[in-house]
Amino acid sequence: MDNTPLDLSKTALLLVDLQNDNVHPDGAFASFGAADHAAEQDLVPHVRQLLEWARNKSIPVIHNRIVFYPGGEFGGSNAPIFRMIGPESLKLGTWGADALEGLEARADEPVLIRNRMSSFNGTGLDMLLRNSSVTTVVVAGVWTNMAVEHTLRDAADHGYRAVLVTDAASSINADWHGAALTYALTNIAEFVTTGEVTGVSA
To answer: How far apart are CA 183 and CA 86, in angstroms?
Structure first.
C-alpha cells in the first residue's frame, strides 16, 4: 500500500464472489483448483479477520455475488468465462450460489447480485458507495484475475482508491493469482495484506 493511510470514515470493504461453488471443496469449481488455492491463501480466515475489523470499525461492508439466472440464456455466451457459469453452477437460490459459511452478510450489509465479471456492472454498487461518502474500496474475494481484477479496474475508473487485500483473494492457482498482481493490476490498485490493513499481525 502507498504511504497514505486509509481514511476509515471514507472506506468500504467489498467482498467478491465468496460463494460455495467458487471456494468450497465440494463446490462446482473445486476440480479446477479453486478450493486448493483458496486453502493455500488461507482465504476464509483472512476474510473473517477483515470482516471483524470492518464491523468493529463501523466500516460499510458490501457483499457481491455472481449468479446464473435459471430459465433462460441470461448469462450469454459471448465469452468463455460466461459459458463456464451455469446451468447448475452458481445457480440462483442454490447452495452453490450461497455465501460461504461464516462469511454471510449481516442484516445491515447489502448483498448485490450480478451475472457479469465486475461488481460494478449491473449492480447499484457505485450508488451505494457514493451515498455512503466512500472514496476508498478495499477488495477481497475470488477470483483474483477475473471478477476481482475487473472490479478493481472499474473502481479505479469510477474514481475510487482501489486496494486489494492480496492474501484475502484467490484464483484457480497461484500462477493466475500472481498474473493479476504482477502484471494486470500494475498501476491500478494498491496491494496490502490482511495484517497490514487491519493493523494486526498475520
So the answer is: 29
Cell numbers for 42: 488461507
Q: Which residues contact 52 (CB under 8 A, 6 or more apart)?
A: none
* Average pLDDT over the chain, rounded to an integer: 94
**111-114: strand order across its sheet:** 111-114, 61-66, 11-16, 136-142, 161-170, 190-192
Q: What is the pTM of this model?
A: 0.95
Q: Is 5 helix (H, G, I), strand (E, B) or coil?
A: coil
For residue 15, the surrounding DSSP H or E stretch is strand 11-16
Helices (H), the chain: 20-23, 34-40, 43-56, 80-83, 125-131, 149-157, 174-179, 194-198
The residue ranges of the chain whose pLDDT is under 70 are 1-3, 200-202
Q: Which residues contact 71 (CB under 8 A, 6 or more apart)?
A: none
Q: DSSP state, 95? A: G
Query: Which residue type is seen at 153?
Result: R
Collapsed DSSP state (helix, strand, coil) of residue 33: coil
Widest CA span of the chain, in angstroms? 49
Residues 111, 27: Cα–Cα separation, whole Å: 20
33 dihedral zone (left: phi>0; alpha: psi -120 to 50; beta): left
What pLDDT digit, counting tens, does each position of 87-110 carry?
Answer: 899 999 999 999 999 999 999 999
